[in-house]
Write a structure and sequence with these properties.
Elements (H helix, E strand, L loop, with lengths): L3 H4 L4 H9 L5 H19 L2 E4 L2 H10 L3 H6 L6 E5 L27 H8 L3 E6 L33 H8 L6 E5 L5 H7 L2 E4 L20 E6 L2 H11 L17 H4 L8 E4 L11 H16 L3 E4 L7 H26 L2 H5 L2 H11 L3 H21 L5 E5 L15 H12 L2 H5 L3 H15 L6 H6 L3 E6 L7 E6 L5 H15 L8 H7 L4
Parallel strand pairs: 2-3, 7-8, 7-9
Antiparallel strand pairs: 1-3, 4-6, 5-6, 5-10, 9-11, 10-11
Helix pairs in contact: 9-20, 12-14, 12-15, 14-16
């Protein structure tokens, strides 16, 4: 067995190397991972579904196959899956909803199949907001996930469970998905690397070939750039469920990320696209990075792409409400009226807002989406990357963002009995909803832009003068994950954030001396 204090410092790449050199066996590292996770999880509530031992034994046997031994890039790495549309056959898959608390898929998502094909050992699933709709992780089904840097704070969402698990060092990597910042926001709040790959870079189905009309993608949280590159090599590429083929890189990401970069042209902004406040903490993170990039010889200029404004807000909400509306309609066909009692009131209100929009409204927003893509492409003819804060506000306290119970009851009744549409005709009610939209969006207004345009974006840790991390976001042209990895590698060597792990919470729970 490997010691717990040694395990929590290991990356996925280091675990693979230890196993392949014969210094430790896969079942030993897995046993330690489960032991550590069981000790840390009661306070954090990151893992909400534990995979049974007999299922894990099947994956351990899979490691004996010659092709897995030779080519398995995740050979023996213990990891966790986000409990949202990442289906492991025979394992409960709830999407964070009471409605699906007993759903057990009999099929496997391609994303999960690639992890297992490469020898990854999945032993649990992590908490998410219901259906991934919210930027914090406090579903009614499982309760709130907490941030290991400060248990009073949220780790963000919707992939908050996976972020909390990796930041606390339960596992070196855990999967997430990102439709509007659901990997990058939690990465920012927990000091991790959070990459949203280009549209189509990683598989989404079955059943759906794309997540949220291509806004969403599956990927992971990590603590090292090397692990990001390793994981991209594992899960990238076309699958039969994909609606199109994205050009595959000629070289492996695990080789490219270490390459020296030419001098880059970096544009940056600290201004929210909807001109709402941005906390000085996150502005300072961007300014710190801009100064460091100038110091190493890059050209840095304050600039924004044309279209950096309210269209981002409108285009995103059009997709967001439409997806919620379509999802609830699909669930009503299968579960009937049970939807109105088991689905959370906030999700039902998103469904109702989708009812108020026409197919023509959605097409108009799609046209605006293409305009934003065109304008960003022109911007990247002048600049190599675009630097912004990842978030605008500090992480909220647990429970702070949950609507009051009386408001939830009001929403549930108004949606169930068709009153929502009638009330929307009242100007005062429309204005209240508008202010709520802006209030929610202003916390994290920077991340949706990359989802809309389909380009890759990464959140990288920045450590300032507080006990919690900050985060900066770097957006690159379509298909240029390689460029983001090279920047991440440079920044990792500058910031040396690996020395910050494990956090004090983990050390205290495991009895690790400072």
């Amino acid at each position: 067995m490997i010691k717990e204090e040694e395990y929590v410092k290991l990356s996925a790449a280091e675990i693979v190397n230890l196993i392949k050199r014969g210094e430790i066996r896969p079942h030993e590292i897995l046993e330690t991972a489960i032991e550590v996770s069981r000790k840390l999880n009661p306070d954090l509530n990151a893992v909400v579904v534990w995979i049974e031992n007999n299922r894990i034994k099947e994956d351990l046997k899979n490691l004996d196959k010659p092709e897995v031994k030779e080519e398995g890039k995740l050979y023996g790495v213990p990891l966790l899956l986000k409990d949202l549309r990442q289906h492991y056959p025979g394992v409960r898959s709830t999407d964070g909803s009471k409605l699906l608390k007993d759903f057990i898929p009999d099929y496997e998502s391609e994303f999960v199949a690639r992890i297992r094909k490469h020898g990854g050992l999945i032993f649990g699933k992590t908490n998410t907001s219901e259906f991934g709709f919210l930027g914090y992780t406090e579903p009614e089904l499982f309760g709130p996930t907490k941030n290991p840097w400060n248990l009073e704070l949220t780790p963000g969402g919707s992939s908050g469970g996976s972020a909390s698990a990796v930041a606390s060092c339960m596992v070196p990597v855990a999967s997430g998905s990102d439709g509007g910042g659901s990997i990058r926001i939690p990465a920012c709040y927990t000091g991790l690397i959070g990459l949203k790959p280009s549209r189509g870079r990683t598989p989404a189905g079955p059943p759906h070939g794309e997540i949220w009309q291509g806004f969403g993608v599956n990927f992971f949280f990590t603590r090292t750039t090397q692990d990001v590159a390793l994981l991209l090599d594992v899960v990238s590429g076309y699958s039969p469920t994909s609606p199109f083929k994205i050009e595959h890189p000629q070289e492996k990401y695990s080789e490219v990320y270490k390459r020296e970069l030419k001098k880059l042209k970096v544009a940056f902004t600290t201004r929210s696209p909807i001109d709402t406040p941005v906390d000085k903490f996150y502005k300072d993170a961007v300014l710190k990075a801009a100064k460091e990039f100038e110091r190493i010889g890059w050209y840095v200029e304050e600039a924004e792409p044309e279209g950096w404004g309210w269209d981002i807000f409108h285009v995103f909400l059009s997709m967001y409400y439409g997806e919620a509306n379509a999802l609830i309609k699909e669930l009503k066909e299968k579960y009937g009226k049970k939807v109105f009692s088991d689905v959370e009131a906030t999700t039902l209100s998103l469904f109702a807002l989708g009812e108020l929009r026409s197919s023509g409204d959605y097409i108009l927003s799609t046209w605006k989406r293409y305009e934003l893509i065109h304008k960003l492409n022109l911007f990247f003819e002048k600049y190599d990357v675009f630097l912004t804060p990842t978030c605008a506000f500090l992480p909220a306290k647990i429970g702070e963002l949950k609507p009051p119970k009386i408001q939830e009851r009001f929403l549930r009744v108004s949606v169930r009995f068709g009153l929502f549409k009638l009330m929307y005709k009242v100007k005062v009610f429309r204005n209240i909803l508008r202010q709520l939209e802006i209030k929610n969006f202003q916390r994290t207004p920077f991340t949706q832009y990359a989802n809309i345009t389909g380009v890759p974006a990464i959140s990288l840790p920045v450590w300032l003068d507080r006990e919690i991390p900050a985060g900066m976001q770097i957006i690159a042209p379509f298909g240029r994950e390689d460029l983001l990895l090279q920047i991440s590698n440079i920044w990792e060597n500058i910031e040396k954030w690996q020395t910050r792990f494990p956090p004090s919470y983990t050390k205290q729970k495991l009895g690790i001396r400072e």
